[in-house]
Design brief:
By secondary structure, this protein is mainly alpha-helical. It contains eleven helices and no strands.
Amino acid sequence: MTGIVMAGIGTGTLISAPVASWLISIYDWHVSYLILGGVLLVVIILAAQFLRYDPTQIGQRPYGENKGTEQWLKLRSEGLSLMEAVYTRQFWVVFVMFLCTAYSRLTVMVHIAPHATDLGISAATAASILATIGIMDVVGRIVLGSAADRIGNRQVFIIGFALMSASFLWLVPATEVWMLYLFAVVFGFAHAGAGASMSPLVAWLFGLRSHGLIFGVANIGLTIGGAIGPLLAGYIFDVTGSYQLSFFICAALCIVGLILTVLLAPIRGERG
């Protein structure tokens, strides 16, 4: 379910790249971003009106209610508080895993198109490479999100980091269009699986008692990685005239994430 819902991220990537390219061809990028921002503001506000916190508002029952009130309350009360979670090794392992994931994704999303055009590839083809990542993002979230229900979210993270590491090592020497498309396919699929498993992984480790708060604080790692990655990659390009070192750093961080995920263990027993 999480994978299907989060497939919207990949769909947005698929749609936004060609739309942004089309707008920029008509207006400059300043006006194009104002248009995109305005459309997003309206769409998000309108879509939010359809959300309901209480299932009874739409004639539905809360999940687990048919199991009995006592069991439902027990499910909601299981797990750690935020303060208990942050004093565990697992919390900081997850924090760094999220940082590595966001660093690699945002570096790619910001710099893969400029990297392609620097190789002599047309802007239209560079945009389609970015759109390919969006397509595979949708596929990966659904396929690997479904797989997570059978093999576990930690295992899906392991698969994701392993494939992302390999894709970046492939990208470093890649100079042909087909090589960049292959990178987009593998990276988009792998990263999507990790993205779909983030929230369930946090729930598996820390329970549901403070899931929203713990997940939100852990996502600060995403914010930090997403902020540093594109900035550092741009600085490295300005200094070296190449993205190779930046892609090596992404590969190294994905390997770090892979090792941390392999070593990650539940705090006290399995949580379903």
